[in-house]
């Protein structure tokens, strides 16, 4: 079995994986990082979004072996100890979730948006979230949370 | 997903060698089509040859009057490239409309045209702009490249290295998106270079094709009103739960008109 070494949330890790093991399976099943969710098997829902070397990608659509040597950031890596990341804080403050299933992917996508575009318009926020599907909220409070995080300088 | 062998190619020659030794092997680019296909067990390759480590396959260069885009260049990179926006803004716009941000961060132009999904966007840009597909073996004109549904002129193991786009005088792309998948129900790319007008249509047929009636009307008069009365025959167009063949035929004219408007 191939082994893969990478940095996840600042920690160096190595694991034995199959060639077909997806990054999300490595994160959830081998590393116990179950904050990254799997909401579909068609690469469409965005619940699994993490950052690989600083860009948002769908961890269900990349092989673990492809991530050799990369730097991966998951939802678990955002908070500093007990202090939530400002985007997480904004989602809590503005009630940007109901069941919470889509939330890890939403937050990771939103953090990447503000990195590329610190002051997005409402339309730009909605367009950026095209690949993050939420069955509960109707998106309204999610957009509000991201606007608030943007105004607070993320 | 069935298991497979995996190797990371260091060069195009390396990848070509690995591919030539195994007819059931597949090249892995952005994985945005291939990995979902594997997850559904719709394909069972013996091996994946990963192109992601080949640095010289990615990047955008200006070469005289041409824009040369490496096969492994991501959609996001094309969408934000200053060179693409300066030389062919319609192509940056096309890339910006593909899927969603995470798909654009991984998906590549080479993977998109090799796959030739009948609803994909890049085939319309490549055919509309009369681009040349460069492989490790030869150069293929866009008119000869797309041969049918999910089919291209590529031979087994042949690797796209880049696509070269000549600069048009004007170009525009408009798509009527499937709201769920963002693929094109109908997308129309219009380009004018001197007196030559090309109109490429995706989403409507078995593969991308040129709409000759629209081309001749626009050659006579390059105005939105020149196409608005043209009725496209629905025969042979796609019909599915998203749109009937008749509706797609109607959309071709509407999208062509909007694409001409977008040419400015
Ligand atoms: C949710 C979602 C939405 C999408 N929406 C759109 C959309 O709106 N419009 C659109 O156009 N596309 C869309 N796509 C598809 C996306 O653009 C893909 O990136 C693209 O179709 C395939 O490119 P890839 O680099 O991911 O290729 P891969 O999936 O890695 O490969 C696809 C095929 O091409 C072959 N191949 C790859 N590179 C080469 C090469 N250099 N030479 C020869 N063969 C090669 C592979 O062997 C494979 O058979 C979407 C995908 C997803 C998951
Ligand atoms: S789990 Fe749905 S896109 Fe990854
Ligand atoms: S909060 Fe339930 S899916 Fe988004």
Offer a concise description of the structure.
The complex is a heterodimer of chains A (154) and B (264). Chain A has 154 residues and is α+β, with helices and mostly antiparallel strands.
Account of the protein in words:
The complex is a heterodimer of chains A (154) and B (264). By secondary structure, chain A is α+β, with helices and mostly antiparallel strands. Chain A has 2 domains: 3-77, Ubiquitin-like (UB roll), CATH 3.10.20.30; 86-151, [2Fe-2S]-binding domain (DNA polymerase, domain 1, Orthogonal Bundle), CATH 1.10.150. Chain A is built from 5 helices and 5 strands, in the order ββαβββαααα. With 264 residues, chain B is an alpha+beta fold. Among the domains of chain B are: 1-53, Uridine Diphospho-n-acetylenolpyruvylglucosamine Reductase, domain 2 (2-Layer Sandwich), CATH 3.30.43; 170-263, 2-Layer Sandwich (Enolase-like, domain 1), CATH 3.30.390.50. Chain B has helices at 12-20, 34-39, 75-80, 82-87, 89-96, 101-106, 109-115, 122-128, 142-145, 212-220, 224-228, 245-263; strands spanning 5-8, 26-28, 47-50, 60-63, 66-70, 132-135, 139-141, 146-148, 151-152, 160-166, 170-177, 184-193, 196-202, 209-210. Chain B has a 5-stranded antiparallel sheet. A 4-stranded antiparallel sheet of chain B has the order 11-12-13-14, with helices on both faces. Chain B has a 3-stranded parallel sheet with strand order 1-3-2, with helices on one face. In chain B, β13 (196-202) and β14 form a beta hairpin. The model of chain B has no long low-confidence stretch (mean pLDDT 96). Chain A binds chain B through residues 2, 18-20, 22, 41-44, 46, 49, 55-58, 60-63, 65-66, 68, 109, 112-113, 128, 130-132, and chain B through 1-6, 8, 28, 31-32, 35-36, 38-40, 48, 50, 52, 76, 99-103, 105-106, 180-182. The site of one FE2/S2 (inorganic) cluster has 10 residues of chain A, from loops.
């Amino acid at each position: 079995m191939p082994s893969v070494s990478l940095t996840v949330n600042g920690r160096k890790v190595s694991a034995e994986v199959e060639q077909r093991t997806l990054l999300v399976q490595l994160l959830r099943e081998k590393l116990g990082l179950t904050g990254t969710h799997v909401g579909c098997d068609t690469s469409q829902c965005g619940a699994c979004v993490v950052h690989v070397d600083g860009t948002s990608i769908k961890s269900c659509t990349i092989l673990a072996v492809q991530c050799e040597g990369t730097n991966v950031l998951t939802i678990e890596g955002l908070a500093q100890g007990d202090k939530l990341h400002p985007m997480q804080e904004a989602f809590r403050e503005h009630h940007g979730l109901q069941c919470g299933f889509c939330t890890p992917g939403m937050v990771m996508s939103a953090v990447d948006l503000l990195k590329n575009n610190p002051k997005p318009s409402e339309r730009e926020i909605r367009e950026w979230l095209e690949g993050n599907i939420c069955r509960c909220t109707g998106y309204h409070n999610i957009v509000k949370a991201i606007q608030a995080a943007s105004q607070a300088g993320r | 997903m069935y298991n497979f062998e995996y190797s990371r190619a260091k060069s195009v020659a390396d990848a070509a060698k690995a591919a030539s030794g195994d007819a059931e092997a597949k090249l892995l680019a952005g994985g945005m089509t291939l990995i979902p296909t594997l997850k559904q067990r719709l394909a069972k390759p013996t091996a994946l040859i990963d192109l992601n480590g080949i640095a010289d396959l990615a990047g955008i260069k200006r070469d005289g009057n041409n824009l040369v885009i490496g096969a492994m260049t991501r959609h996001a990179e094309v969408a934000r490239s200053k060179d693409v926006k300066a030389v062919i803004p319609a192509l940056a716009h096309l890339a910006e409309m593909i899927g969603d941000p995470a798909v654009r961060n991984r998906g590549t132009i080479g993977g998109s045209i090799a796959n030739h999904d009948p609803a994909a966007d890049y085939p319309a840009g490549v055919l509309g702009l009369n681009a040349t597909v460069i492989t490790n073996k030869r150069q293929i004109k866009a008119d000869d490249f797309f041969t049918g549904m999910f089919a291209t002129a590529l031979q087994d193991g042949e690797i796209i290295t880049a696509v070269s786009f000549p600069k048009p005088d004007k170009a525009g792309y408009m798509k009527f998106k499937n709201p769920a998948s963002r693929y094109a129900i109908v997308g129309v790319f219009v380009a004018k270079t001197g007196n030559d007008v090309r109109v490429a249509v995706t989403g409507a047929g078995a593969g991308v094709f040129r709409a000759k009636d629209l081309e001749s009307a626009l050659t006579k008069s390059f105005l939105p009103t020149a196409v608005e009365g043209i009725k496209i025959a629905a025969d042979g167009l796609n019909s599915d739960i998203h749109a009937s063949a008749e509706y797609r035929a109607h959309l071709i004219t509407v999208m062509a008109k909007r694409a001409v408007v977008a040419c400015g």
